[in-house]
Design brief:
single chain; alpha/beta; Beta Polymerase, domain 2; two-stranded antiparallel sheet; 22 helices; 12 strands
């Protein structure tokens, strides 16, 4: 799959459009980040060329949103979004326009969400084109809607969450009128798909400022409609924010999600992440981390076999980080330090640093002995493997004898 284009590829696309007689400008977030001196990871081009015209000018074009004037130009393994200047028609569902009409750069800027995202840049003339006061708001550190906040949020309720994301990511304040409108429209976020909400949420939770994002979501009344019971319970919410604050510096979405949802039952975590459209791998990881979040409390008495199963899991490094945080929050830094030393000591108990070696005895071995598959055989195999992990049996002969004793017992 093509990667987001750098400036050189985007400039090549822009120059080609201009050579064909069209207007073309850098637009949106790339302009904002350039003006802030931040790294730009994705360049978008806005033009007066229609999607069909764009398709005729470039060899590889995907019309990803032709109805809305959006094409994706692919060049040199990189992709550049090219959008036709447009005005949005009416919005009937709070999610997307019912239609668009192609228009001018000024009209295109006026239909965008926030002033800081509504600017254009001409890289040839090296000129910022600002119809909406975006440069002033960048300088003031303010997130402000373009036009009336109620109108902008009624068009697309996801903008409610985006206002928080931009404020937290950039360290900006939300304009008071914009903030008031966010709180007013907060219940409407339920109309937005879980996938779109999670896309915004995951961007916030991948930042060191993740805990501040949660606080801002709660302050504006969005958290209860996104995170349900977690945000409705004062104690649960405080614990979630504290735990997220302690892990957010790692910029690890999986770990941060686990920290946020740790106090919830596995069933609720699975349901929430499923509603968000999270991948199976992410959902399974977060559920597993939650199930074992407090196993650190019994580390000293935990059978070696149980510890090795944890240590051999692909999420163990994250689990250990979660243990440190939860031990610190529950019992102080000294307890967290002693717990961490205990983990290290228990890891040294594992021969060859191999938590989960191949079983010394398998079902095939027992079948060759004339035994029949079934629950009893499964129990015998599990017992033999636990004995192997506990260093109670060390050879295949000993493991077979252990399995037979279980079957005969």
């Amino acid at each position: 799959m093509a990667e987001a284009a750098g400036k050189a590829t985007a400039l090549w696309v822009l120059r080609r459009l201009r050579a064909a007689g069209h207007q073309a400008l850098f637009a949106g977030g790339c302009v904002r980040d350039m003006l802030l001196g931040r790294p730009v990871t994705d360049y978008d081009v806005a033009t007066d060329a229609s999607p069909s015209r764009v398709r005729g000018l470039f060899r590889r074009v995907l019309l990803v949103g032709e109805k809305f004037g959006v094409a994706m130009v692919i060049h040199g393994g990189r992709k550049v979004e090219v959008a036709t200047f447009r005005s949005d028609l009416s919005y009937s569902d709070g999610r997307r326009p019912d239609g668009v009409r192609f228009s001018t750069p000024r009209e295109d800027a006026l239909r965008r969400d926030f002033t800081i995202n509504g600017m254009f840049y001409d890289p040839v003339a090296r000129e910022v084109i600002d119809y909406v006061g975006g440069r002033d708001d960048l300088a003031a550190g303010v997130i402000r809607t373009i036009g009336k906040p109620d109108e902008r949020f009624a068009e697309d309720y996801l903008r409610l969450v985006r206002a928080v994301r931009f404020a937290v990511r950039l360290g900006f304040d939300i304009d008071p009128k914009t903030a008031t409108a966010v709180a007013k429209f907060a219940p409407r976020i339920a109309a937005i798909s879980g996938e779109r909400i999670f896309d915004e949420l995951s961007k916030m939770l991948s930042l060191p400022s993740a805990a501040e994002a949660l606080r801002k979501l709660a302050e504006l009344g969005l958290a209860v409609h996104i995170l349900g019971g977690l945000a409705c319970d004062k104690d649960l919410w405080a614990a979630a924010v504290d735990c997220v604050s302690a892990v957010a510096g790692r910029k690890d979405l999986t770990l941060t999600l686990a920290a946020m949802l740790a106090e919830l039952p596995a069933r609720m975590v699975a349901g929430l992440t499923r509603r968000w459209g999270a991948s199976n791998d992410l959902r399974d990881a977060v559920v597993w981390l939650g199930q074992h979040r407090d196993d650190w409390r019994g580390l000293g008495d935990m059978p070696l076999s149980s510890f090795r199963k944890l240590a051999g899991h692909g999420q163990f490094a994250r689990l250990r980080a979660l243990w440190r945080v939860r031990a610190h929050l529950a019992a102080g830094i000294a307890r967290a330090g002693s717990m961490n030393r205990l983990v290290t000591r228990r890891l040294r108990e594992i021969p060859g640093h191999e938590p989960l070696p191949e079983p010394l005895v398998t079902g095939t071995d027992l079948i060759k002995m004339g035994l029949h598959p079934g629950p009893a055989m499964g129990k015998a195999l599990r017992d033999a493997y636990d004995a192997q992990l506990n260093l109670e049996v060390r050879t295949r002969r000993e493991a077979l004898a252990r399995a037979k004793n279980v079957l005969n017992g």
